[in-house]
Design goal:
Length: about 280
């Protein structure tokens, strides 16, 4: 059985353990360690990463299996690992990561939002010249499917019917998010997945989500969260409202309809969207 090492910059993260192919050993072994860097591999005693899915500014997502479920349920394990940040930015990044777990715990009961399974820390003792380290993880439901970004690459453009169907499915999900006091802040095709099993549209990646209340809606954020091309003007200026998600969804629809990048659809001279000629 292969287990993928989650230590950042591990030179050979792929590990193979023949003994784990035995069902009894697989269920009872306490821990395995990376053959290259010594990193603990079985996270929280149950999650076994198998490959890296994606890497972003604040961390890396891994596809993993839960050995405490009968069918070795696939899940996503996210590791918090920002680099090159000062103390203030690091504190904000860690706050965003913890906020993602809090938001998923609250919103994951919706069938089109991934559920949170666990949020945990992993202290690792230093070896030789390596210092002690502390890693932070969250485990969440794996949504098996294709992102709208991937769909667009296949079909070049979405039809009006495609976009109307998207709005009919996704707007109720956004309403649920907003009614539960959160703003996603990163609506874009890469964060919208069409689930394979039932063709439902799912909203993922709540790493930039912001829990809000009436008293803090208009307060300035420390950083601008979200993807610049799809971000609302107030979001770029450090403020976020519920309408920022609607704006991001609108830009997403224009991008899908035209197949053009948002930056190519906006007229900076006129200060407005000029997308009809590309449609």
């Amino acid at each position: 059985m292969e287990i993928y090492c989650t230590r950042p910059n591990c030179q050979r993260p792929n590990n193979f353990f023949a003994d784990l192919d035995d069902p009894q050993a697989f269920k009872t072994v306490q821990q395995k360690f990376c053959l290259t860097c010594g990193m603990p591999l079985i996270l929280l005693g149950r999650y076994l990463p198998s490959r890296r899915l994606a890497q972003g500014g604040f961390g890396t997502a891994f596809l993993a299996r839960d050995r405490y479920t009968p069918g070795l349920r696939p899940c996503v394990v996210k590791q918090f690992q920002p680099t090159g940040l000062g103390p203030q930015e690091m504190a904000m990044a860690q706050s965003l990561f913890q906020r993602e777990a809090e938001v998923l715990e609250k919103l994951g009961r919706h069938p089109q939002i991934p559920d949170l399974f666990a949020f945990f820390e992993l202290p690792v003792s230093g070896q030789g010249m390596q210092p002690d380290e502390e890693f932070f993880y969250l485990a969440q439901e794996f949504i098996d499917g294709q992102t709208l970004e991937e769909e667009l690459a296949d079909k070049t453009q979405f039809t009006e019917t495609d976009v109307l169907e998207l709005l009919q499915e996704l707007l109720p999900v956004l309403q649920f998010v907003h009614e539960n006091g959160s703003i996603h802040r990163d609506i874009k095709p890469a964060n919208i997945i069409r689930r394979t099993i039932d063709n439902k549209i799912c909203l993922v990646d709540f790493g930039a989500a912001k829990a809000v209340s009436e008293t803090i809606l208009a307060k300035t954020s420390i950083t601008v969260a979200g993807s610049f091309s799809f971000a609302a003007p107030e979001q770029i200026n450090g403020k976020t409202t519920f309408a920022s998600d609607i704006y991001g969804l609108g830009v997403t629809c224009l991008h899908l309809l035209t197949g053009q990048l948002p930056s190519d659809l906006y007229s900076y001279a006129d200060g407005d969207w000029a997308w009809q000629d590309s449609y």
